[in-house]
Amino acid sequence: MGDERVKDEALQIMTLFHVLPRLVVFDLDYTLWPFYCECRSKREMPRMYPQAKGVLFALKEKGIDMAIASRSPTADIAKTFLNKLDINSMFVAQEIFSSWTHKTEHFQRIHRRTDIPYKSMLFFDDEDRNIEAVSKMGVTSILVGDGVNLGAFRQGLAEFSQNSGVPADGTNPK
Asked: Which domains does the chain have, with CATH numbers?
Protein backbone atom coordinates (compact mmCIF):
# COMPACT_ATOMS: atom_id res chain seq x y z
CA MET A 1 0.00 0.00 0.00
CA GLY A 2 1.62 3.28 -1.13
CA ASP A 3 1.93 6.45 0.95
CA GLU A 4 -0.95 8.11 -0.94
CA ARG A 5 -3.35 5.19 -0.34
CA VAL A 6 -2.37 5.03 3.34
CA LYS A 7 -2.88 8.79 3.63
CA ASP A 8 -6.36 8.52 2.10
CA GLU A 9 -7.29 5.66 4.42
CA ALA A 10 -5.95 7.56 7.46
CA LEU A 11 -8.00 10.62 6.44
CA GLN A 12 -11.04 8.34 6.15
CA ILE A 13 -10.39 6.97 9.66
CA MET A 14 -10.24 10.55 11.02
CA THR A 15 -13.77 11.25 9.74
CA LEU A 16 -15.08 8.61 12.17
CA PHE A 17 -14.14 10.74 15.18
CA HIS A 18 -15.67 14.04 16.27
CA VAL A 19 -12.75 14.95 18.50
CA LEU A 20 -9.20 14.85 17.17
CA PRO A 21 -5.97 15.55 19.02
CA ARG A 22 -4.37 18.98 18.57
CA LEU A 23 -0.91 17.40 18.62
CA VAL A 24 0.29 13.91 17.74
CA VAL A 25 3.70 12.97 19.15
CA PHE A 26 5.84 10.16 17.79
CA ASP A 27 8.81 8.27 19.11
CA LEU A 28 11.35 7.46 16.36
CA ASP A 29 13.14 4.14 16.93
CA TYR A 30 10.83 1.16 16.36
CA THR A 31 7.87 3.54 16.07
CA LEU A 32 8.42 5.52 12.84
CA TRP A 33 11.34 3.40 11.64
CA PRO A 34 12.42 -0.21 12.34
CA PHE A 35 15.86 0.36 13.94
CA TYR A 36 17.83 2.21 16.63
CA CYS A 37 19.60 5.34 15.34
CA GLU A 38 22.69 4.64 17.43
CA CYS A 39 23.22 1.40 15.48
CA ARG A 40 23.22 3.20 12.14
CA SER A 41 25.43 5.56 10.16
CA LYS A 42 24.50 8.99 8.82
CA ARG A 43 25.60 7.78 5.38
CA GLU A 44 22.77 5.22 5.22
CA MET A 45 19.41 5.87 3.61
CA PRO A 46 16.82 5.12 6.30
CA ARG A 47 13.39 3.65 5.66
CA MET A 48 10.20 4.08 7.63
CA TYR A 49 7.59 1.50 8.54
CA PRO A 50 5.40 0.93 5.45
CA GLN A 51 2.34 2.91 6.65
CA ALA A 52 4.02 5.53 8.86
CA LYS A 53 4.64 8.17 6.19
CA GLY A 54 1.04 7.99 4.94
CA VAL A 55 -0.23 8.59 8.50
CA LEU A 56 2.07 11.63 8.80
CA PHE A 57 0.81 13.00 5.45
CA ALA A 58 -2.82 12.58 6.56
CA LEU A 59 -2.22 14.46 9.84
CA LYS A 60 -0.43 17.22 7.94
CA GLU A 61 -3.27 17.51 5.41
CA LYS A 62 -5.80 17.68 8.26
CA GLY A 63 -3.80 20.49 9.90
CA ILE A 64 -2.94 18.53 13.05
CA ASP A 65 0.43 19.45 14.56
CA MET A 66 3.04 16.75 15.08
CA ALA A 67 6.10 16.46 17.32
CA ILE A 68 8.87 14.00 18.11
CA ALA A 69 9.85 12.67 21.55
CA SER A 70 12.86 10.40 21.27
CA ARG A 71 15.33 9.27 23.93
CA SER A 72 18.02 8.65 21.31
CA PRO A 73 21.62 9.26 22.39
CA THR A 74 22.43 10.07 18.73
CA ALA A 75 20.22 13.08 17.96
CA ASP A 76 22.52 14.03 15.07
CA ILE A 77 21.81 10.74 13.27
CA ALA A 78 18.06 11.00 14.00
CA LYS A 79 17.94 14.53 12.57
CA THR A 80 19.95 13.48 9.51
CA PHE A 81 17.46 10.67 8.88
CA LEU A 82 14.46 13.01 9.28
CA ASN A 83 16.02 15.23 6.62
CA LYS A 84 16.84 12.32 4.30
CA LEU A 85 13.24 11.08 4.59
CA ASP A 86 12.03 14.62 3.81
CA ILE A 87 9.78 14.78 6.89
CA ASN A 88 11.83 17.12 9.11
CA SER A 89 9.62 20.16 8.43
CA MET A 90 6.43 18.29 9.43
CA PHE A 91 7.17 18.59 13.16
CA VAL A 92 6.46 21.68 15.28
CA ALA A 93 8.75 20.35 18.01
CA GLN A 94 11.56 17.82 18.08
CA GLU A 95 12.77 16.71 21.48
CA ILE A 96 15.54 14.21 20.73
CA PHE A 97 17.91 13.58 23.62
CA SER A 98 19.01 10.81 25.94
CA SER A 99 17.13 10.78 29.23
CA TRP A 100 16.31 8.65 32.26
CA THR A 101 12.88 10.24 32.70
CA HIS A 102 10.87 8.00 30.35
CA LYS A 103 9.95 10.98 28.17
CA THR A 104 8.26 13.16 30.82
CA GLU A 105 10.95 15.80 30.27
CA HIS A 106 10.44 15.56 26.50
CA PHE A 107 6.72 16.22 26.96
CA GLN A 108 7.27 19.12 29.36
CA ARG A 109 9.45 20.76 26.70
CA ILE A 110 6.91 20.04 23.94
CA HIS A 111 4.15 21.49 26.11
CA ARG A 112 6.19 24.64 26.83
CA ARG A 113 6.98 25.05 23.14
CA THR A 114 3.46 24.43 21.79
CA ASP A 115 1.27 25.50 24.73
CA ILE A 116 -0.97 22.51 23.91
CA PRO A 117 -2.44 20.80 27.01
CA TYR A 118 -1.38 17.20 27.64
CA LYS A 119 -5.00 16.04 27.39
CA SER A 120 -5.06 17.34 23.79
CA MET A 121 -2.09 15.17 22.78
CA LEU A 122 -1.85 11.66 21.32
CA PHE A 123 1.43 9.76 21.62
CA PHE A 124 2.82 6.66 19.87
CA ASP A 125 5.79 4.72 21.28
CA ASP A 126 7.13 1.17 21.33
CA GLU A 127 8.16 1.07 25.01
CA ASP A 128 5.77 0.28 27.88
CA ARG A 129 7.66 2.45 30.39
CA ASN A 130 7.31 5.55 28.18
CA ILE A 131 3.60 4.85 27.59
CA GLU A 132 3.04 4.44 31.32
CA ALA A 133 4.93 7.61 32.36
CA VAL A 134 3.42 9.85 29.68
CA SER A 135 -0.12 8.51 30.28
CA LYS A 136 0.17 9.70 33.89
CA MET A 137 0.66 13.23 32.51
CA GLY A 138 -2.77 13.03 30.85
CA VAL A 139 -1.56 12.21 27.32
CA THR A 140 -3.43 9.47 25.44
CA SER A 141 -0.57 7.03 24.78
CA ILE A 142 -0.56 4.06 22.41
CA LEU A 143 1.93 1.19 22.50
CA VAL A 144 2.92 0.11 18.98
CA GLY A 145 4.22 -3.39 18.41
CA ASP A 146 5.16 -3.10 14.77
CA GLY A 147 5.55 0.61 14.18
CA VAL A 148 2.91 3.23 13.41
CA ASN A 149 0.30 1.81 11.06
CA LEU A 150 -3.39 2.34 10.30
CA GLY A 151 -4.48 -0.07 13.05
CA ALA A 152 -2.47 1.76 15.71
CA PHE A 153 -3.68 5.09 14.32
CA ARG A 154 -7.34 4.04 14.54
CA GLN A 155 -6.78 2.70 18.09
CA GLY A 156 -5.09 5.98 19.07
CA LEU A 157 -7.95 8.11 17.77
CA ALA A 158 -10.53 5.84 19.45
CA GLU A 159 -8.77 6.03 22.82
CA PHE A 160 -8.24 9.79 22.45
CA SER A 161 -11.94 10.24 21.70
CA GLN A 162 -12.87 8.04 24.68
CA ASN A 163 -10.52 10.00 26.98
CA SER A 164 -12.13 13.23 25.74
CA GLY A 165 -15.53 11.95 26.82
CA VAL A 166 -16.98 12.08 23.31
CA PRO A 167 -18.02 8.74 21.83
CA ALA A 168 -17.03 7.89 18.25
CA ASP A 169 -20.66 8.17 17.11
CA GLY A 170 -20.79 11.82 18.22
CA THR A 171 -23.66 11.44 20.67
CA ASN A 172 -23.32 13.33 23.92
CA PRO A 173 -22.48 11.15 26.91
CA LYS A 174 -25.06 11.34 29.68
From this structure: 3-142+155-163 (3.40.50.1000)
